[in-house]
Write a structure and sequence with these properties.
The complex is a heterodimer of chains A (439) and B (480). About 1% of the residues of chain A have low confidence. With 439 residues, chain A is mainly α. Chain A starts with a helix and ends with a helix. Chain A has a three-stranded antiparallel β-sheet with strand order 1-2-3, with no helix packed on it. A two-stranded antiparallel ribbon of chain A has the order 4-5. In chain B, a hairpin with a 2-residue loop joins strand 10 and strand 11. Chain B has 480 residues and is of the alpha+beta class. Chain B has 17 helices and 22 strands. Classes of the chains: A mainly alpha (439), B alpha+beta (480). At the A-B interface, helix 1, helix 8, helix 11, helix 12 and helix 13 of A face helix 1, helix 2, helix 3 and helix 7 of B.
């Protein structure tokens, strides 16, 4: 069976999920307010499936050899996200659906205009600087938007734009390109000092700069989660590029020291760490601890099998939310609440499958840049899932990162569709039969 | 570069395993403690969406029911108003404030079931609904008891001694649970000078029992063999008697040698105080424990709305009978530092009435699910056996004399033999403020009802004159 036919079959679970999900939410609402079941749900589902099919046909033409599982896995996540967002608020779901359309257009444009994605290497410093500027934008007066003490958004007319989402792509592209050049030197020039392999100082410098940048990021945007996401992706690419565990350990040590210092000295970060260590402290459960405590209460309410789509309680009788930012940060808690541990593990499994396919792409790639790019994209994606799910389950301090393809939010959807496009581009090139050998 | 990629993937698998572990920690393994966290308002909001079951009297009268409120929620209504305020209690679900049966039967009323059942219900598409709790309470008797108190502060409790079923449980002043839902309503009930209407005097009122306690002393004396015959003049009724080094006098006269029957019939203090000293602290403590003193009543009622009966120090803490500060002679006549609840004294009467076997009192008769099926019936349960059937029968005869010719003649019913014991604890001799008591059961030959009545701060009131007539009316309504 050809790759594209496998992809088409892979879309079946997504279509079943979106139809069943919307029907479930509708039945639940109908039972609650004694209204009749509306056909609107099926319209949503049909339009969404139509979009998936259009994208599939586009991939058939543009990237016939690309990995057949990446797109259906994203479709499952996106359908799922749309149902969850719809369950919270119809208006948000309509906007989310519009963002999907825009996202798919951007996805197609990326594939058309970056067909030869390796030309990205030529602009790597431009991309790196552009990404750092993007990251600092939220601190600029006038356009910066502070949410819960962290500077994560830029206020543009009509929308709040989250630059981190795009910056992560730029930084991964830069790192992949930079380490392709220097990985040999880093390894061959390494010396052993006291039994630890240290890279040559000249080339280690830029890496220290990146460490410094991520620490700066912590201070500038006050967000431990984003910083962890960037640094994790950096260490992943570094490790694959050099195959030196010692570099990773040094990196982790440096990050640990930096995080410890900031976690004990920067007031906003200190607050987050305090809440993380003692989420149920009654003194702050209605202030700084409200979000994480209610995230955990929601998960407890879900249990093994959950309350079913639309079955969870997300606001009190006065219509005040008891699950703050349910459509973005806490959407995973709502998933546990409504689908239980079983449903949540299912979602995590889909993410893990996506990441596994991403690494597979990296292994099949025939040049170092492609490999490192695929590793970086998959790792930053994995770290993003870890940071937000780890945050709402209190594995690490909670920070506002979106759950890719599921959370509500335009920036997140657009950036992650570009990420998917890049992975598919790398994959298509890697799996393309070599005409020169065949001849 | 495929080896480091594989290792990297393994690291990510480990990270995801952490996520799964933590998710299961909150959603499954640690879920119960999170649900019970007082800061978790989720169960309260969930409770608002459940049609809570009704609470009914033994004849089907609705005492509490759910009515539709805004936004798919339900609110609570109490059609009988203040009449059943204490036993039924209130449910202010939005703030999670519950009392009375609304609290002690909350699981049944809110339809909380086991995890397995809830999964099964979910698969069958059933919505959670509360069960109806049918009580043992008799609306007529409750009305008679409430009216008979005539607005005086006090309490009436009537039990079926054969089963422990509570037939009437009235505490005055009462309160209307319907006002709980307004903020001002709750505040007014808790206001100073409102005579603490939320206090359930049946289970929370701590009063000196006066001479009603002589029934416990007599049971101890007869059952332990210290007094072998109820009619032998083996007690010393001389007045004054020196009890714990301090003289104790009878109100009326010096009686000389008397039988325990005579001593009980005419409530002779010196005879019982000497008897108490003779029995000693160990025997008295043993029999008090058998009757349920020093423990919370085994009633299906919230634990913090009940107190134990026994000797209490100035700080309100229970003191064991064995303590050197206890004057066992005065305790034997219901004085010293003894404080009891009306429920406890009803249990004393009930044990004598039921041939020496004390049945655990209970307010709930059965639990009925929304489909009308009885899912739980509360079977009568023996709490203890304080005395032999023989002792109980002798005590019944003695308590019959109290009503026939002694201090309790005001309770006499036409055609029915009543056995009882009066009590009048003196709170202030100078101001003549008393705590009148009466405990009784009827019919004496086949007891169906045991009752305890007390009235607070009665000026010049005596048990036989104030409490006994109230008991009489309630007995009459229940034996009609």
């Amino acid at each position: 069976m050809s790759a594209r036919n496998r992809e088409l079959i892979g879309l079946i679970p997504a279509s079943l999920l979106v139809t069943a999900g919307f029907a479930a939410v509708f039945i639940q609402r109908g039972a609650a307010s004694q209204n009749q079941l509306s056909s609107l749900s099926l319209t949503y589902g049909a339009i969404f499936l139509g979009l998936c099919l259009v994208a599939h046909v586009f991939l058939r033409i543009a990237l016939p050899y690309a990995d057949p599982y990446l797109f259906p896995l994203v479709a499952v996540l996106a359908c799922f996200g749309l149902v969850m967002v719809y369950r919270i608020d119809d208006t948000l779901a309509r906007q989310q659906a519009q963002w999907f359309v825009v996202g798919l257009i951007l996805f197609a444009l990326t594939i058309i205009f970056l067909r030869d994605y390796r030309k990205l290497e030529q602009y790597r410093y431009l991309i790196a600087i552009g990404s750092l500027v993007l990251l600092c934008l939220p601190r600029l007066p006038g356009i910066g938007a502070q949410v819960n003490g962290a500077y994560l958004g830029i206020r543009l007319p009509g929308i709040i734009f989250q630059p981190t989402e795009f910056a992560k792509l730029g930084i991964v592209i830069f790192l992949a390109s930079y380490l392709r050049d220097t990985r040999q030197v880093l390894v061959s020039g390494a010396r052993r000092v006291f039994g630890v392999t240290l890279p040559p100082l000249k080339h280690f410098g830029p890496l220290l700069v990146i460490w410094g940048a991520s620490m700066l990021l912590l201070i500038v945007i006050r967000d431990l989660g984003s910083s962890l996401m960037f640094f994790g992706a950096f260490l992943a690419i570094l490790y694959v590029a050099t195959n030196r565990l010692s570099f990773v350990l040094i990196g982790l040590l440096l990050f640990g020291v930096g995080a410890w210092y900031l976690g004990t000295h920067v007031p906003h970060v200190v607050d987050r760490v305090d809440v993380w260590l003692d989420p149920f402290n009654p003194q702050r459960i209605n202030t700084t601890g409200f979000q994480i405590a209610n995230s955990l209460f929601a998960q407890a309410d879900g249990g093994l099998l959950g309350r079913g789509f639309g079955g969870a309680i997300i606001s009190d009788p006065f219509n005040h939310s008891i699950l703050p930012a349910a459509q973005t940060d806490l959407i995973y808690s709502l998933i546990v609440n409504e689908l239980g541990l079983v449903g949540a593990v299912g979602v995590l499994a889909v993410y893990l499958l996506f990441i596994e396919r991403g690494f597979k792409v990296a292994m099949l790639a025939r040049d170092s840049f492609s490999t490192l790019l695929a590793v970086g994209l998959s790792s930053v994606f994995a770290m993003q899932v870890f940071v937000i799910v780890g945050g709402v389950t209190n594995v690490i301090p909670l920070t506002g990162v979106t759950l890719p393809f599921i959370s509500y939010g335009g920036s997140s959807i657009l950036a992650n569709f570009v990420l998917l496009a890049l992975l598919l581009l790398v994959s298509d090139k890697a799996r393309r039969p070599d005409r020169s050998l065949a001849r | 570069m495929s080896k480091p990629i594989t290792r990297l993937f393994l690291v990510i698998v480990v990270l995801f395993a952490l996520l799964v572990a933590w998710t299961s920690r909150w959603s499954v393994f640690g879920a119960d403690s999170l649900r019970d966290n007082p800061d978790n308002k989720r169960p309260l909001f969930a409770a608002l969406r459940v049609k809570r079951g009704a609470i009914k009297a033994d004849d089907g009268t609705v005492l509490a029911r759910s009515v539709r409120a805004s936004g798919g929620t339900w609110s609570r209504e109490y059609p009988t108003g203040s009449l059943f305020g204490h036993p039924v209690g209130y449910a202010k679900l939005i703030s999670g404030q519950l009392s009375g049966l609304e609290r002690s039967r909350n699981d049944e009323l809110s339809g909380t079931t086991s995890e397995l059942n809830s999964i099964l219900d979910q698969l069958q598409g059933k919505r959670r609904a509360g069960n109806t709790v049918v009580t043992t309470l008799d609306p007529t008797a409750q009305r008679v008891a409430t009216d008979a108190l005539q607005g005086q502060k006090g309490a009436v409790v009537a039990l079926d001694p054969r089963t422990g079923a509570v037939k009437a449980m009235a505490s005055s002043p009462g309160y209307d649970p319907n006002v709980i839902n307004s903020r001002a309503g709750l505040r007014s009930l808790n206001a100073d000078g409102a005579d603490a209407p939320l206090l359930d005097r049946v289970t929370q009122g701590a009063y000196p029992p006066g001479s009603t306690f002589k029934v416990v002393t007599a049971a101890a004396a007869l059952n332990s063999g210290a007094v072998s015959s109820p009619d032998a003049p083996v007690l010393n009724g001389d007045s004054p008697a020196t009890i714990s080094g301090v003289p104790l006098r009878n109100d009326d006269r010096s009686w000389g040698p008397v039988s325990i029957t005579t001593a009980l019939t005419f409530s002779i203090n010196t005879a019982f105080a000497r008897l108490g000293e003779r029995l000693g602290k160990r025997t008295m403590a043993d029999y008090m424990h058998r009757f349920g003193f020093y423990s919370l009543p085994p009633l299906d009622y919230p634990k913090d709305q009940m107190i134990s009966s026994g000797e209490r120090g100035p700080d309100g803490r229970l003191i064991p009978v064995a303590s050197p500060s206890v004057d066992v002679g005065r305790m034997a006549i219901g004085q010293d530092k003894l404080l009891v609840t009306p429920m406890q004294m009803a249990m004393v009467a009930s044990a004598v009435a039921n041939g020496g076997k004390l049945m655990a009192p209970h307010l709930t008769d059965k639990v009925v699910d929304p489909d009308g099926r009885t899912i739980d019936t509360i079977e009568p349960k023996q709490y203890s056996q304080p005395m032999s059937a023989r002792t109980a029968s002798e005590l019944t005869t003695m308590m019959g004399h109290v009503v026939e010719e002694g201090t309790g003649t005001a309770v006499q019913l036409p055609g029915i033999d009543v056995a009882g014991k009066t009590g009048t604890a003196e709170l202030s001799i100078r101001d003549h403020i008393n705590q009148p008591w009466f405990i009784a059961f009827a019919p004496a030959d086949n007891p169906q009802i045991a009752i305890a009545v007390t009235v607070e701060h009665s000026v010049n009131g005596f048990g036989g004159a104030v409490a006994a007539p109230i008991a009489r009316q309630v007995l009459l309504s229940l034996l009609r």
